[in-house]
Amino acid sequence: MRLQFLGANRQVTGSRHYLRTDGARVLVDCGMFQERKYKDLDWEPSPVPPKQIDAVLLTHAHLDHCGLLPKLVGEGFRGPILTTPATADLAEIVLRDSAEIQAEDAAYKRKRHRKEGRKGKHPEVPLYTLSHVARAVRLLKPVGYEQPVPINDHLTAIFHDAGHILGSAMIELRVRRQDESRRLIFSGDIGQWDKPIIRDPTSFSEADYVVMESTYGDRDHAAAGDVPTQLGRIVGRTIAAGGNVVIPAFAIERTQELMYHFHQLDHEGQPLDVPIFVDSPMAIDVTEVFRRHRECFDLEAWQRITAGHPPLGFPDVTMVRSTEESKQLNRLDTPAIIVATSGMCTAGRIKHHLAHNITRPESTILFVGYQAPGTLGRQILDGNSEVRIHGRQWPVRARIEQIHGLSGHADRAALHRWLAALRKPPRHLFLTHGDPEASEALATHARDELGWNASVPQYQETVELE
Q1: Where does 40-129 have alpha helices with state H?
Q2: What's the CATH number where 380 sits?
Q3: Dihedral of CA 344/349/355/357: which sign?
Q4: Pair 22, 43: CB distance under 8 Å
Q5: Burial code of 152-176, b = ≥16 C-beta within 10 A, e = fewer?
Q6: Which helix (H) or strand (E) segment is 461 a member of?
Q7: Average pLDDT over residues 371-393
């Protein structure tokens, strides 16, 4: 067996792993690179000839795990894309949104470059189009959790709940060769225990090889009180100052969790008494997918449903679809909460709301998720005095806040808990999907505390598995 690491190596985007076994070649995830210094990799041809890939196994629908699938199809991939039913539905939404944003950005760049009389580094065209997305969607093959799926006579895949977002999965690969067998676990993104709406992540008692994410491998989530309390405090102070609360949020999971907590505050008699707008057609569509896939809900969510308080029922929230409605939000003369995508402020409507609020001391930019290095969100969160939005520098005068407890990723303690479930050491642990410090910290824990073989692969590194 040969395993090659083609993304999310010593950084957190572009997840992609290529496994070659007897008669089978599979790609686990095919994600887009989103950190600025790695974006050039999105434009490079696939490191693996797409026509040689038998199947893609998709862990979940975040863009950094599925975002290059249409490009792979455009380059010649024709095999199945195996994933859970909820992920299949979400991936279609995510990829269509990505193609539309790329088309808009390409048009904007052409216009700006003509005006400035210069050319950009890359062609002023989308990385892929809606036509490529349609072809990729036709290849999506839904498979249920815990259902063995044969790739060929020697390789079987099983999807297990990862507890990260709706439909997210850890992928177990069972490889058989003559009288021997090997068990490989690809963790995907590991969620937190006791999160709202979705179930807890799966643990494993044994594995021969583990490819594991390490986003928070060197730190625990800060304890700053429960999420509703934090929300109430930040919103209350901002509204009293006469400003808006602008929340960059991922359309999948994070927006739904926010609505869950807004609903909880209202249900407990602590309404925020301010209009709430979800400015994201994508988030609206995703919410409908949540409602269709209640089989992914945890016990608490089902208890709310049976008690007549569905976790995704929020009558006081205004869902904003049209561009004109979105523009009107920046003409409001009273305070409001505006939740908009994208979560790292890399594209989409959030940039317009930032441009209208980031210079206002009375407004608050509230971050509720991880901000990758190099992204606009990270620059704001790191305290930059000014940031570039739509080709213009803007001074940062708004209050910058961050809520802890909404992260979809397991923190250091939870990652240690997940590793501890393995009753005996795997032959090797590979740490991916983390900044170098985070990945190395988790590798050091595995080596020094657990006595395991562990390493942090480089981009395009290839290893032979016994």
Answers
A1: 40-43, 63-66, 69-74, 85-116
A2: 3.40.50.10890
A3: negative
A4: no
A5: eebbbbbbbbbbbbbbbbbbbbbbe
A6: none
A7: 93
Q: What are the tokens at 383?
A: 């305290």
Residues 194 and 249 occupy one common structural domain: no
What is the CATH number for 45? 3.60.15.10
Task: Give one DSSP letter per residue of 138-176, joined into a string.
Answer: HTEEE--TT--EESSSSEEEEEEE-SSSTT-EEEEEEEE
Which has the minimum average pLDDT: 111-125, 228-242, 388-402?
111-125
pLDDT for the residue 313 = 66
> How far is residue 73's CA from residue 133's CA, in Å, rounded to a whole number?
8
Cα separation, 435 vs 371, in Å, equals 12
Considering the domain architecture, whether residues 57 and 106 belong to the same structural domain is answered as yes
The answer to whether 250 and 369 are in contact (CB under 8 A) is yes
- Is 237 found in the same domain as 203? no
Q: What percent of the chain has pLDDT over 90?
A: 73
Point out the least confidently predicted range of 120-134, 181-195, 405-419, 443-457: 120-134
Sequence-distant (≥ 6) Cβ neighbours of residue 44 within 8 angstroms? none
Q: Which long-range contacts (CB under 8 A, 24 or more apart) does 345-349 make?
A: 345/248, 345/371, 345/375, 345/376, 345/377, 345/380, 346/34, 346/375, 346/376, 346/377, 347/101, 347/105, 348/101, 348/280, 349/279, 349/280
pLDDT one-digit tens code per residue, 156-193:
999 999 999 999 999 999 999 888 899 999 999 999 99
Which of 14, 47, 1 is closest to 460 using CA atoms? 47
Shortest CA distance to 12 belongs to which of 465, 461, 466, 456? 456
What's the pTM? 0.88
